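Colleagues,

For the teaching module next term, I've prepared a clean inverse folding example: a structure given as tokens, and then the sequence designed for it. I'd like students to try predicting residues themselves before seeing the answer, so please don't circulate the second half yet.
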């Protein structure tokens, strides 16, 4: 009876889909409040480009919008679109970002289930494979790490594209293939790993014995792939040819060895880590040769769907194999290959024949789900994430740097100093660690030590030009303004820190009372929000100063300051107005009239400007012009008070006119 109920349950599509939904929601229920993590800061939290939906068209043409820092540019417009929509929804409410990630993972799990059914897996095995994918601990990194949403979106594009391709083969309808190619394009606009879809299709057709009929159907995918490669060609040339982070033999040897390491993570995900202790290898090393032989043996020993799954895994990892990346191995790269693992396992007939599979499987899946649930806790904040990494990889500097950064941000300066010193025990000359340690010295008020540390880093690593900015901040905080300016000005114009440096120089000059220099440097800082705010606040404060000078009868000083403000901001209404008033009070009517006329042309709703212009015209004897100006004011104002004043002055003027 129980057996019949079990098979009836898994045979129903709605019940199976519901079980997948429940599995995903149960495993990731504790992930929604997890904090933004390391790269989330530059790509989301401090990225001004995602804060306005008006920037959406630029996502498709400006790769630098991907990050706060232009040097981290990537072409991932749909990923940016998702971040912008997230921000419009809840700004920086982190739970909304996690909810989207969890939903994307759920969509991928459902697509895996749909693919398994379409390749004729039994309903129970299709459900088993989809739930295995849904709860596998390796999915915790792309789900918890918000910036790794790119992996989820690219996978969704690939899986949806492949499922629609299967539907096009089944229904013989071109609409499905068009939709499949569009999903492929969407996946590519999220991350380049989606390039594997055409390879998956070719491998599937080879497996099905229909390879000869495949090539004519691949042209839509070829067009999309060529268009994408042309769009990102500069990034590819830089990463692969002009500025690779490692040589080709070292890259291929390292990634060949990584395949065995990834296999271990697939089957024994007990030591998941954001900083795996993995080293580079040359192509001819014994460990690399043994890894290649092991994989070749596995490929030839397995057949059917299992061989298909192995090929899918290898092709999904192909971009990582060919493009040298800074991080040697990480877990989110295994998200799409995990689908290949599911296919490979379900293709093993011996696995399906195991006794007790029906009852043992739920226990196994529950164990994996519990491991994933516990892994979510590690992702709760930067201290827990990098603390876990430091324990699992004690010989690495990177976790200690992030721990130092996180504890410094929390104000735990002594603890941050200890982490940085531990890192220096591992690598005494690490320039980034020493610079971060200098930041802690600055926070602690130990300026001489901070200055000496930054200066030494610059001597030994002159290419680290951004340290000039950090050193300038210490000098500025220590009250050594001239030395601060010197360091700020040493920054290259292309430096991402230059706008901050110019803003700080503006602040130094403002404190020193050098208003013209302050306004100049605030202007150089461009669209930096703080500089714009400082500049606007300074101009408004100086407008008030002009008013005080006028009240005290210092008309020439008021004129000079107003001219300075007008030069700094040609569109500032009150600066124009104060200049017109200062000239009028000096009885320089022609000059005042010229300034005032430009003012009302640029600000036609500024009633006080019209009133002042009419007064100048009256005072200079141009009564007819004044009459017209008063009439314009009366007709155009929306303020009853100004209408009454204009009417009274017009009446008095007309009584004086012949």
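(Answer key — instructors only)
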């Amino acid at each position: 009876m129980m057996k019949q109920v079990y098979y009836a349950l898994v045979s129903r599509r709605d019940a199976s889909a519901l079980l997948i939904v429940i599995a995903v929601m149960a495993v990731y229920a504790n992930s929604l409040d997890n904090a933004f993590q390391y790269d989330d800061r530059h790509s989301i939290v401090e990225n001004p480009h995602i804060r306005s939906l008006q920037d959406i068209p630029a996502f498709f043409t400006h790769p630098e919008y991907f990050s706060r820092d232009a040097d981290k540019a990537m072409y991932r417009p749909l990923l940016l679109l998702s971040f912008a929509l997230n921000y419009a929804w809840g700004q920086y409410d982190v739970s909304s970002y996690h909810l989207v990630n969890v939903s994307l993972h759920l969509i991928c799990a459902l697509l895996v289930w749909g693919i398994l059914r379409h390749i004729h897996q039994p309903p129970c095995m299709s459900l088993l494979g989809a739930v295995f994918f849904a709860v596998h601990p390796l999915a915790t990194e792309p789900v918890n790490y918000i910036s790794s949403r790119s992996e989820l979106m690219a996978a969704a594009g690939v899986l949806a594209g492949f499922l629609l391709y299967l539907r096009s083969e089944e229904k013989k309808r071109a609409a499905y293939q068009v939709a499949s190619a569009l999903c492929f394009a969407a996946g590519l606009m999220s991350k380049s790993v989606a390039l594997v879809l055409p390879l998956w299709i070719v491998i599937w057709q080879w497996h099905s014995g229909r390879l000869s009929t495949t090539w004519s159907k691949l042209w839509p995918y070829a067009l999309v792939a060529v268009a994408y490669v042309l769009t990102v060609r500069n990034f590819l040339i830089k990463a692969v040819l002009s500025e690779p982070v490692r040589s080709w033999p070292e890259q291929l040897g390292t990634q060949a060895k990584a395949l065995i390491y990834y296999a271990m993570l697939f089957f024994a995900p007990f030591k998941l880590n954001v900083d795996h202790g993995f080293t580079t290898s040359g192509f001819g090393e014994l460990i690399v040769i043994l890894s290649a032989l092991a994989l070749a043996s596995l490929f030839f020993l397995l057949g059917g769907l299992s061989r298909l799954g192995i090929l899918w895994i290898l092709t999904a990892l192909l971009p990582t194999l060919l493009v040298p990346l800074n991080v040697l191995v990480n877990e989110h790269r295994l998200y799409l290959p995990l689908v290949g693992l599911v296919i490979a396992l379900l293709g093993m007939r011996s696995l399906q024949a195991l006794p007790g599979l029906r009852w043992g499987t739920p226990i196994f899946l529950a164990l994996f789900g519990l491991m994933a649930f516990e892994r979510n806790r590690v992702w709760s904040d930067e201290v827990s994430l990098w603390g876990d990494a430091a324990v699992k990889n004690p010989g690495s500097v990177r976790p200690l740097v992030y721990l130092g950064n996180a504890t410094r941000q929390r104000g735990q300066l002594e603890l941050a100093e200890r982490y940085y010193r531990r890192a220096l025990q591992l690598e005494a000359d690490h320039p980034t660690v020493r610079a971060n340690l200098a930041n802690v010295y600055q926070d602690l008020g130990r300026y001489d030590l901070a200055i000496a540390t930054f200066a030494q880093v610059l001597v030994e690593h002159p290419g680290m030009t951004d340290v000039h900015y950090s050193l300038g901040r210490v000098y500025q905080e220590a009250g050594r303004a001239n030395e601060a300016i010197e360091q700020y000005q040493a920054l290259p114009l292309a430096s991402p820190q230059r706008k901050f440096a110019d803003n700080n120089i503006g602040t130094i000059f403002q404190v020193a009372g050098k208003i013209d220099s302050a306004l100049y440097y605030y202007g150089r800082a461009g669209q930096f929000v703080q500089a714009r705010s400082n500049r606007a606040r300074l101009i408004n404060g100086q407008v008030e100063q002009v008013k005080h000078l006028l009240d005290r009868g210092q008309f020439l000083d008021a004129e000079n300051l107003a001219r300075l403000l007008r030069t700094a901001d040609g569109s500032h209404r009150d600066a124009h107005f104060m200049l017109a008033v200062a000239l009028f009070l000096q009885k320089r009517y022609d000059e005042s009239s010229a300034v005032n006329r430009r003012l009302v042309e640029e600000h036609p709703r500024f009633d006080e400007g019209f009133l002042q212009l009419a007064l100048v015209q009256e005072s200079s004897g141009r009564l007819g012009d004044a009459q017209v100006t008063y009439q314009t004011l009366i007709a155009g104002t929306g303020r009853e008070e100004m209408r009454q004043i204009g009417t009274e002055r017009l009446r008095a003027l007309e009584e004086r006119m012949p």
